[in-house]
Amino acid sequence: MSTVTAAMVKELRDRTGAGMMDCKKALAETNGDIEAAADWLRKKGLAAASKKASRVAAEGLVGVATAGNKGACVEVNAETDFIARNDQFQAYVSTLAKIALDEGANPDALKAASYPGTGNTVETELTNLIATIGENMTFRRAELMEVKQGVVASYVHNQTAEGLGRIGVLVGLESTGDTKRLYEVARQIAMHVAATNPQSAFIHELDQALVAKERAVHEDMAKASGKPAEFLDKMIDGRMRKYYEQVVLIEQEFVMGPDKRVKDVLEDAAKELGTPVELKGFIRFGLGEGIEKEETDFAAEVAAQLNK
User: What is the pTM assigned to this prediction?
Assistant: First the structure.
């Protein structure tokens, strides 16, 4: 049986990123063969990843990447909030956002894309990361925004590293105006989106079923008010306007200057630049939104671990 040296363990650890004891065991199992040990670790990682796949992953990071008139936003989830401070995890999410910028937002295509410097796919690299860090992780979603002429600006809220955090926003502006000034306006609007979480950019983009439900509520309220019938339509329309001002980006009061609405900010920018400035849209990813989290008893979990 070949002797496993510290140098061999270091070489395998540098190559795979696995823990020291795992590397030592892999070399012992494969009689000191580095290549075979790397395969052994990979198989172990796949098995470990499979076991972890049923565990809820609602933490993690949102990542954004932009380049001129294009931007990408991705979300990768894990089990605990500690993962957001892990250098390897941060590097993965940041790299994935940059890959999405080039490859597009199709999930299957992204998973099959080459992960730089490893010879692995994006999906395989995530599996290896699961084995190394020891948490279930999932690549949840990606979206791409692009304008023909203009800018796409980003903003990350609760940022843990460059382009990484709990809320990621992209805003696209179509215009032939000065790109530096356009970027400033787009970034301010992106910060506004992070704060207000609008449902859509424009009224016509709202879910019409939700609009109909909202209108029905206000119709009932108007009828119950006892006001003359000729006033009811105006009451309903007025309340619907207030609803749109709450949930539609272009209609919202601008958080950095509440005396204006977002559409006024765009009009002011157009006047300043001497050319039209059109909102293309926005993308907003909030970490873990829509994922049903398990309620856990921390004390019970600790007790269970001690009794194992």
Answer: 0.76
